[in-house]
Amino acid sequence: MRLLNLARPLTLTLFVFFFSSIALNAQQPDAIATVQCVQTSALKFINRGTLVEEFSFLIQDFKINHQSELNNLNIKVRYCYETGITESQYPDFQLILNDIKNFLNNYPDEEAYWEILNKELTHMVLQKYPMLSSITSEMQVSPSAMIPFLRSTTVTRQRFRPFGLDSKKNVSP
Length: 173
Hints:
The protein is an alpha+beta fold. The chain folds into 2 domains: about 1-45, no CATH class; about 55-160, GTP cyclohydrolase I, C-terminal domain/NADPH-dependent 7-cyano-7-deazaguanine reductase, N-terminal domain (GTP Cyclohydrolase I, domain 2), CATH 3.30.1130.10. The chain has helices spanning about 95-105, 115-130, and strands at about 1-5, 15-25, 35-45, 55-65, 70-80, 130-140, 150-160. The strands form 2 sheets. It has a 4-stranded antiparallel sheet with strand order 4-5-6-7, with helices on one face. α1 packs across α2. The model is unreliable at about 1-45 (pLDDT under 50).
């Protein structure tokens, strides 16, 4: 017999349990209730869980002329891979890094808010790299002569999937 605390995260997936009693546990004040369980040996499964693969990198001290002055950016990029991609489908992060730098250096609207620039950057990456399921870009803008405040924008974009359809190439607007 085991005692399980319901106040803490609990995963009992793919096991069958019989709940024999539920009682308040006065010895653990943070506990809501304690459940006494008996595990059956009739059904046992191995739960490998859901695979989520992430990769991240930092572009540090990236200089860009934007909003009428030279700005210094630190950009943390984190992305998740599509489930089930083959080894040959993993992109070299340096390709993504270079695409981001190229995108920023050639962004047509020099007066755009940082949030818009960041949103468009995530859109470009997901469009170009179909093996990615999502991307998060945290763009930090250092204080400058015109704006003496540290500011940042974070954008997370996930690939759009209509219910029941395989749409690895669809990117949410």
